[in-house]
Design a protein that fits this description.
It is a single chain. With 246 residues, the chain is of the alpha+beta class. The chain folds into 2 domains: 90 residues, no CATH class; 148 residues, SMI1/KNR4-like. It is 34% helix and 21% strand. The strands form 2 sheets. The protein has a 7-stranded antiparallel beta sheet with strand order 5-6-7-8-9-10-11. Strand 3 and strand 4 form a beta hairpin. Helix 4 packs across helix 6. The longest helix is centred in the middle third of the chain and has 17 residues. The relative contact order is 0.09.
């Protein structure tokens, strides 16, 4: 565990790397310390350093457990602390390679695409008529809606596989396959997106299980949305939906 004095020493080393004339102040939160560069006190007054400006100097976070330093933009320290907590949660949620792809696509912890989802549902109300949107489906659309997710190819190159598009997108929505799937398996599903392979539709049921409705067969992508996101980005074989006791 990094003490406040140790964090201050780390922060002063970080601050002095680019602006040796500046001082630093710390703000403590549960997972560490936010370091802000500040103007030093004037020698004549001997007073405390001036507070960090609202904009200008970058910030840093010193992790309480490891002492690792990460650079952050010039934001209020409370905002940085909140985002750091969200980032740590995301690190446990997705493996690094998948998280990198998600972040490059525009995802971040706490992303809220709700207004676009509402507009999409109104725009395609006729096509979506009769399909219930379970809370887990809406939550997935709010968080991941509008993302284009490339897939790693067989040789490990990003973009070498099939792209996945998470609704709402600029294109339309196909729902007949979702209705056919619900009837065949007695399991209502809701459109989540589509995939270039086939092309095929991505759907999610009320338990969060994700399926790919391909022209060749229906496939089980993952037991929950996060697992499905990992599978779609990393690629690999998927079991046929009819072969699984889900």
């Amino acid at each position: 565990m990094i003490s406040r004095d140790e964090a201050l020493a780390i922060a002063r080393q970080w601050a002095g790397e680019s602006q040796p004339v500046l001082d630093v102040t710390l703000f403590e939160f549960d997972l560490g310390y936010v370091a802000c560069r500040v103007e030093p006190a004037a020698p004549a007054t001997g007073g405390p350093p001036a507070p960090p400006p609202a904009t200008g100097y970058s910030r840093a976070v010193i992790d309480r457990e490891t002492g690792e330093v990460s650079q952050w933009p010039s934001l209020p320290w409370q905002t940085i602390a909140e985002r750091y907590v969200q980032r740590r949660a995301a690190q446990a949620r997705f493996p690094p390679d998948v998280r990198h792809v998600l972040e490059q696509a525009g995802w971040f912890p706490g992303r809220d695409f709700g207004a676009a989802v509402d507009h999409w549902m109104v725009r395609f109300a006729d096509e979506l008529a009769g399909l219930d949107c379970p809370p887990i489906a809406r939550n997935a659309l709010v968080e991941f809606g509008g993302l284009r997710l490339p897939q790693f190819g067989r040789r490990g190159h990003l973009g070498g596989g099939f792209m996945s598009y998470i609704h709402p997108t600029r294109g339309g929505v196909v729902t007949e396959a979702a209705r056919d799937f619900a009837e065949e398996y007695d399991n209502p599903v809701y459109p989540l997106g589509n995939n270039e392979d086939g092309p095929s539709e991505l759907v999610v049921d009320a338990q969060g299980r994700v399926f790919m409705l391909h022209w060749a067969d229906d496939f089980f992508v993952g037991p929950d949305v996060d697992s499905a996101i990992v599978k779609l980005i990393r690629g690999g074989p998927m079991a046929e939906a009819s072969d699984r006791d889900w």
